[in-house]
Write a structure and sequence with these properties.
Elements: E1 2-6, H1 12-20, E2 29-32, H2 39-45, E3 59-61, H3 63-74, E4 80-81, H4 84-104, H5 111-114, H6 122-136, H7 141-144, H8 157-171, E5 174-175, H9 180-190, H10 192-199, E6 203-207, H11 214-226, E7 231-236, H12 246-249, E8 254-255, E9 264-271, H13 277-289, E10 300-301, E11 322-326, H14 331-340, E12 345-347, H15 357-370, H16 375-382, H17 394-400, H18 405-429, H19 446-462, H20 466-477, H21 484-487, H22 498-520, H23 522-525, H24 535-548, E13 561-565, E14 574-579, H25 599-606, H26 615-630, E15 633-642, H27 657-663, E16 667-671, H28 677-680, H29 696-702, E17 707-708, E18 716-718, H30 722-727, H31 729-736, H32 750-771, H33 775-786, H34 797-801, H35 806-832, E19 837-845, E20 849-851, E21 854-857, E22 859-866, E23 870-877, H36 908-920, E24 925-933, E25 938-943, H37 948-951, H38 960-980, E26 982-983, H39 998-1001, H40 1003-1006
Parallel strand pairs: 1-7, 1-8, 2-3, 2-6, 4-5, 6-7, 9-15, 9-16, 11-13, 11-14, 12-13, 14-15, 18-21, 23-24
Antiparallel strand pairs: 10-16, 17-26, 19-22, 20-21, 22-23, 24-25
Helix pairs in contact: 3-9, 4-6, 4-8, 4-24, 9-10, 9-11, 13-14, 16-17, 18-19, 19-20, 20-22, 32-33, 33-35, 36-38
């Protein structure tokens, strides 16, 4: 069996043409390609894309065609092949019957007690993958039963379900696509004499198979045995030494060698953030098309010495010479980026129905129904152009607030009557239009759409067979005036909707085809086709079908980038090939073993010659696929990745690239510099796209927003605002001087809770000084007191009485009681160590501290003075204690923070208190400062001998002197800002995560801002 390896896919051009030039009769030769998608590419490779009327096309098959041709020769009807949704349907039926039998057994605990996951929907996904792997590798039921472990009931699950699944297919004459090679082998063996006549004069040429499954391999051996001519395999070479490719799989093969190793080039682009990757790729292509050097003059060849290895600008090959692979989940983002830069593109395959208007509407429809048809989500659903259309307004519906079927019907009937009355009045005023024709009444679609979706959802909720469910969906799509009827006039105003209309029409056609298929071929599916599904199970069936069903792609556009959602066909190649999302997360990604087919099971099957790939084998297979995809580019392969994922977590580059470059000696790898938002915006060198980008000169003129103002003489600053000022001066000015702050619309306010706890603790410590009672008793009495309308707690009565805040009050009571226990523990340890307080001062104003012409003020929550003339300063915080030990870093990038410190590492507010108290009370040595947090019941700070073991046992921290020196530097920096009266934004600030005035600083416009706004758990208000 000759095996002919090739490197790049384009190397096949010469190999196939040489084979065809040998005068092989098309009646003898059968070319077999991996999939139907490879047929056009095979014709291109062979130079036979255009056939004349008298030209005889060679036989071009895939495995299914080979099976069908053999069935026709043997005069046997082929088995009906099931699609993925039917596959899941049958598995669900098999599992349900299996569990039903298990539950009827009386002896011993059932399987569900050992493994509750068997009854969960996610189990079908695991089972489906395992069964397809077993079928691909032609594992028999007998071989699989070897993996059963005595005394372990769960080890019987997979063998028994596998046996039942195969039996079900056999009884109903159904065929899983993975079975085709094995079923073909059975036909060849059963009808041996006739099969010999079929195979005798044929030449089988397998093109593009890097390796074979065990089922394919055994069928291949049988074909070679029966075929009197020969079987030839053209396989892509990977240069992987431990990869079981076709050469290693086929015993006694004749490796004819392949073309010599050819040169190639890989250019790697890297974006700083996940959302920038599509923009980076599209803009790079647009600049290349515009005549700019590609990808950039800054690129250096990896390993070259400084100043060497600059790339030579590549001539732009035209958009039609570019192919691009994008993960399906990012297809929409890439399409948006290509459209923004006016780059022509066409989809190689239609998108899945789940990504079309029908799929998204179907998912949103059931979610809205299951949540009780709330006002906003239901209004948003009905307002779609394909349903209620333009006559329905979301704002009016939300203000009316209908909820539930009856309420929505009443509201929609009311607006229908109002609309009809208004229209009748208008018709009376204008009896005839300009052409003299009477105006017709226009019926509104809102009530019609609502009743249609209600009818559909009731069917899903009640339950029906698969055919009945698709019948209900088809009826929903066929309601007059909705869907295609409602959208018919839109593309004339917006031509971009043409594709959406085409996809919707194609989706509706697929629904009808599936409905007719299930209804007419129901006996072929057997009992699984009669199962009644309802609710979430029914919607899972719809979702599975919509994800696996593709709508027909629009006709290809000449001179456009070809976009693939996933890998391209095996035989595809382009002068320039682009691979996106080339990260360690995807290549190799996470390769896990199945709980049903783990290492012990695979090793047990190996003992009976049943081969299943191990985790290592799958890793190597993924690397081989990566190498094949890299060689899809004839001249250039461009890879792109981002440094973070959707959640902002770091992503590493793939580990497959370095070994590939080491093995491919003639290949060149060029790594472009990392690109952030600033690199993707027009730079100083010029070159921008006026339709979508701001010119450099205009951007420079606009400049950075800077606030100016404040007291010219004797500026003052509370030290509780010190961190806020240094973190971002502009944010400080907008909140403290301009008084800009996002209004808090929640019932419960952290600020109000913080103020209440300060009043409670002030009273508790005053009583503690007088009575010496335990803090837990005092805090319980004080909480009861706070619940009554006394003078001290009058401002907090809404917080203490509102029934809607009962849960928050329970939490607050728990937090305060827990913090009382923490502080009582500190007091007990102090007493045990012989340390006694001479005084405890609550809510104490410190003497103002002056430096560099600026006055700093402060108010301490608690100052504990001990008999030995040392003091500890404690501050209460409503949030978590650790949230206030903040750090300001990247000081060198801040002009106003030019200091010898690389970073301010500690809570500056407490350090300032220590500095100010020490200056005002030189007779007392400050030996500790700390934050007490309510939400975590914790204490953090710096404590020295002799109190360190009492406040923070077994925890080391910096010295008070270090904190005082550090905060002195911080005060000088703050004074410089206040004296300059110039407040600049800092785009590296920690507060950017939760800033409520970020729309003013233009960070997102100038530098990008991908961090989500998150609720800040701490506080910086002076009141607490």
């Amino acid at each position: 069996m000759p095996i002919v390896p090739y490197r790049k896919v384009s190397d096949l051009d010469v190999l196939l043409k040489n084979l065809l030039d040998k005068d092989l009769s098309s009646k003898k030769t059968r070319f077999i390609v991996p999939s139907r998608r490879d047929r056009d590419w095979w014709r291109l490779r062979a130079g036979l894309r255009d056939f004349g009327l008298e030209t005889e096309e060679p036989h071009l098959w895939n495995w299914e065609d080979l099976y069908n041709d053999l069935c026709a020769f043997l005069e046997l009807p082929p088995l009906r092949q099931i699609d993925p949704p039917d596959h899941r349907l049958i598995l669900s039926h098999v599992v349900a019957e299996f569990l039903k039998e298990e539950s009827s057994k009386k002896q011993g605990p059932g399987l569900l007690e050992f493994w509750p996951g068997l009854a969960r929907p996610g189990f079908i996904d695991v089972l489906s993958d395992d069964i397809r792997e077993l079928i691909n590798e032609a594992v028999s039921v007998e071989q699989l039963f070897v993996t059963k472990v005595d005394g372990k009931p769960t080890s019987e699950v997979l063998p028994r379900l596998y046996e039942r699944y195969l039996a079900y297919l056999r009884e109903n004459r159904l065929l899983d696509s993975a079975q085709i090679p094995s079923v073909t082998l059975e036909l060849l063996e059963e009808g041996k004499e006739i099969a010999e006549d079929w195979a005798r004069d044929k030449i089988f040429v397998f093109v593009g198979f890097m390796s074979f499954t065990h089922g394919q391999l055994t069928c291949l051996y049988k074909l070679e045995e029966l075929c009197r001519e020969e079987v030839v395999v053209f396989k892509p070479a990977t240069e992987l030494k431990n990869f079981q490719d076709a050469t290693r799989q086929i015993e006694g093969e004749t490796d004819l060698g392949g073309p010599p190793l050819t040169a190639g080039k890989v250019v790697s682009l890297c974006a700083s953030e996940h959302s920038l990757e599509p923009e980076m790729v599209a803009r790079t292509l647009a600049l290349w098309h515009a005549g700019r050097e590609f990808p950039s003059s800054r690129i250096e060849i990896e390993g070259a010495r400084e100043g060497e290895g600059k790339t030579v600008p590549d001539p732009f090959p035209g958009f039609g010479a570019i192919g691009m692979s994008v993960p399906e989940r990012r297809l929409d983002a890439m399409e948006a980026a290509l459209r923004r830069y006016r780059i022509p593109y066409s989809l190689a395959r239609g998108r899945s129905i789940a990504k079309t208007l029908l799929g998204t509407t179907l998912a949103n429809l059931w979610t809205t129904w299951s949540q009780g048809l709330d006002p906003y989500d239901t209004a948003l659903l009905l307002a779609q152009p394909c349903l209620a259309g333009a006559g329905f307004t979301i704002d009016d519906a939300v203000r009316a607030g209908p909820r539930g079927i009856a309420s929505w019907e009443a509201y929609l009937e009311q607006i229908e009557r109002i609309g009809q009355a208004e229209q009748a009045e208008q018709i009376e005023k204008n009896a005839k239009n300009a052409n003299g024709k009477k105006e017709k009444k226009k019926e509104k679609n809102a009530i019609r759409a609502f009743r249609a979706l209600t009818k559909f959802c009731r069917t899903v909720e009640k339950g029906d067979s698969p055919a009945g469910l698709f019948g209900a969906l088809h009826a929903f799509l066929s309601v007059p005036g909705l869907w295609m009827d409602a959208l018919a006039g839109l593309p004339s105003n917006d031509p971009d909707l043409d594709d959406s209309m085409r996809e919707l029409a194609a989706s509706a056609a697929e629904v009808e085809a599936k409905y007719l298929s299930l209804r007419e071929l129901l006996p072929d599916l057997g009992a699984a086709g009669k199962i009644a599904m309802k609710g979430k199970e029914a919607m899972d069936f719809f979702n599975s079908w919509s994800e696996d069903t593709l709508v027909q792609a629009s006709p290809p556009i000449g001179g456009a980038v070809v976009l693939y959602a996933g890998p391209p066909p095996i035989l595809a190649s382009y002068p320039v090939w682009i691979m996106t999302d080339v990260t360690q997360k995807n290549w190799p990604g996470v390769i896990r073993s199945s709980p049903l087919l783990d290492v012990p099971e695979r090793e047990a099957m190996a003992s009976v010659s049943a081969y299943l790939p191990s985790i290592h084998d799958k890793h190597v297979q993924k690397e081989a696929l990566f190498r094949r995809l890299l060689q899809t580019g004839d001249v250039l392969t461009l890879t792109s990745r981002s440094e973070t994922d959707e959640e902002g977590r770091p992503l590493n580059a793939t580990s497959f690239m370095a070994p590939f470059m080491a093995d491919m000696q003639l290949w060149e790898h060029i790594a472009a510099p990392r690109m952030g938002i600033g690199d993707l915006m027009p730079g100083k060198e010029g070159g921008h796209f006026p339709a979508i980008e701001v010119a450099v000169s205009e951007k420079n003129q606009r400049g950075m927003p800077v606030a100016r103002g404040g007291s010219k003489t004797d500026p003052r600053l509370p030290v509780s605002s010190l961190y806020e000022l240094l973190d971002c001066p502009l944010r400080y000015w907008l909140k403290r001087h301009a008084k800009l702050k996002e209004r808090d619309t929640s019932l419960f306010s952290d600020a109000e809770a913080g103020r209440l706890t300060h009043v409670i603790w002030e009273s508790v410590w005053r009583r503690r000084q007088e009575t010496r009672e335990p803090l837990s008793l005092l805090i319980r009495e004080e909480w009861e007191k706070a619940s009554s309308p006394t003078e001290d707690y009058a401002p907090f009565q809404r917080l203490m009485k509102d029934r809607r805040l009962a849960r928050h009050r329970q939490n607050m009571e728990f937090y305060i009681a827990r913090l009382a226990r923490v502080q009582q523990g500190i007091l007990d340890r102090l007493e045990a160590g012989g340390l006694r307080h001479s005084s405890i001062c609550a809510e104490t104003e410190l003497k103002p501290y002056e430096t560099d012409g600026t006055t700093f003020t402060g108010r301490c929550d608690r100052i504990e003075v001990f008999n030995d003339d040392f003091a500890v300063i404690i501050d209460y915080k409503w949030g978590r204690s650790v949230s206030y030990e903040k750090k300001i870093s990247d000081l060198l990038s801040r002009r106003y923070l030019s200091t010898r410190y690389e970073a301010f590492k500690y809570g500056l507010q407490l350090s300032a208190y220590a500095l100010m108290y020490a200056a005002a009370h030189p007779e007392h040595r400050v030996v500790g400062v700390g934050f007490l947090g309510h939400k975590d019941g914790g204490l953090t700070g710096t404590f020295e001998y002799p109190v360190a073991g009492c406040y923070l046992p077994d925890k080391k921290s910096a010295s008070i002197e270090t904190r005082a020196n550090e905060v002195l530097e911080a005060l000088k920096c703050a004074a410089a800002i206040l004296q300059s009266r110039r407040y600049e934004p800092c785009y590296l600030a920690e507060s950017c995560r939760y800033c409520d005035v970020k729309g003013i600083c233009r960070k997102g416009e100038l530098h990008g801002d991908s961090l989500p706004t998150a609720e800040f758990e701490g506080e910086s208000e002076e009141a607490y």
